[in-house]
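Dear colleague,

Following up on yesterday's call, I've attached the two folding results inline so they're easy to grep. Please treat them as preliminary; we haven't cross-checked anything against experimental data yet. The first protein's sequence and structure tokens come first.
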Amino acid sequence: MSLLKRVPLFERCSKRDLDKIGSLAREIEYPAGTPVVREGEPGIELFIIVEGEVDIRSRARKLATLPAGNYFGEIALITGSPRTASVTTGTPVRALVIEGRDFRQLLHDSPELQFKVLQEVGKRLEERSSRLAPQRIRLRD
């Protein structure tokens, strides 16, 4: 439960919300070098890294390394869009995995929780778009 509370996606959630979320999660271990999700595939799970690190790549370009306490898969899961990046374990990883249909049902049944999660997803999308926005080049006169 303390791990879920530290995950930005759930940090605004009540203890009751966290209990509900925790009841949906199953724990999985992956060896280093394991592909967890592939870019372009449907998003059917949300992953929370408990131990280890994963590498995020898009079009074979490394975008980031996420350590324990981070999460991935929420955007494709909520929007129904294909995965925007591939994720491979950089080290052995222990993760909590929440199935999409269970998570969507929880959000449907709890509008307050839905609002909290969507606020965080919106913030994350905004951060991503600002990182990907074209940089303005200042030309010298």
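Below is the second protein, in the same order (sequence, then structure):
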Amino acid sequence: MAPMSGASDLVAGRIIRFNEEGFAADVYDDATGKPIECEGQPTVGYGCRVRQWSERLARAVLTFQLAETEVELLQYPWYVGCNDVRRSALLEIAFNQGDTGLIKGYPHMIAAIGQENWEQAAAQCTVRDDWLKVRYARIAEVLRTGVDA
């Protein structure tokens, strides 16, 4: 059998990774397969080694994930009608809570956005979890002002 080229090796590697490793949406311990209370190499997705990701790769993956999240939001006039900064605030919520979490979890905020009532939109941008309140206060301020200071 002839040796494979570098490109063929890469394709074969992907097939093995996708078919044999399987997909896991959450970070898990490579040594045990359990969620991230880690003794081994933490991995995510199709067994990608997270600690070995460069910042460039992590940014590329995050950029892809954000674009994928935004595809759903782009069908809503209230989202498209926002400036880029307000869209980034809404995208932050959708990325963390899912687009359904944004849409079903914040109907009053979305109604206020549709009416360009930025004070009301900001007032509706709340969370129950204490550790998220600072983040959502910033998102609310971005919605209120349309700028990210």
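For the second protein, one point worth flagging: The chain has a mean pLDDT of 75.

Best wishes,
A.L.
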